[in-house]
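Today's session is about reading a structure prediction critically. Students often jump straight to the picture, but the first step is always the sequence itself: look for stretches that repeat, for charged clusters, for runs of hydrophobic residues. Only then move on to the predicted structure, which in these notes is written as discrete structure tokens rather than atom positions. Here is the chain we will use throughout the hour.
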Amino acid sequence: MTRQSSEAADAALHEQQVVEFLRHHPDLLRRHPDLLAELNIPHAAGTGAVSLVERQVSRLREQREEMRHRLDELYALARDNESLALQFHQLVLDLLSAREPTAVAEALERDLHRDCGADAVALRLYPAGEHHIPDHLIGPRGADRNRLERIFAAPNPVCGRLDAEIGALIFGDGGEAMVSAALIPLPLRGRSLGLLAVGSTDPERFRAGQGTLFLEQLGEAAAAALHPHLAG
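Below is the predicted structure for this chain, in token form.
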């Protein structure tokens, strides 16, 4: 037997093995639909059944729709990121134009309500040294401050569910309705000036483990705006 005839016999044997395997596993293509995109199958018209070609085309259409859906999600994410960048830019400009702590607090509250859908915004400060800070911006003192010490001492923003009593301490009147919050430290030269809190009545608005890069940048921008008024 020549080499070519031997190879032909081996190929025929392997093909027969594949045929027998498919006979015993008629649901193979259903379990591996990705194979349909790789097979070269002639269309058998007039059989009255859905052909493999039609299944292959259907699968390719599904893949195309999946890709289109993913692209739409990427476009939406890009638009959201662009919108967020513009909003943050405007907030920084507003903070730079603030001439005293109350104006900083008002800019934060106005912009975060408008652009981030915040239900409550609170700025709570603990300035070093003697500085004239309005009472409504000073954080809780005494035993109430001790209860919040862990929050004020956190090095990074914390998101998640908020206890009603803690919400009232941070946000004041109506704070017990804030069931989730982002608690953002205001870092300055290795210490924190205080806390910026953003609250929501939606328990899923701020969740533990969500990304905090924007919140960190927000805290740094707010601290920079407050620095001239609070640095000791």
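Discussion point for the tutorial: Strands lie at 120-125, 158-161, 180-188, 191-200.
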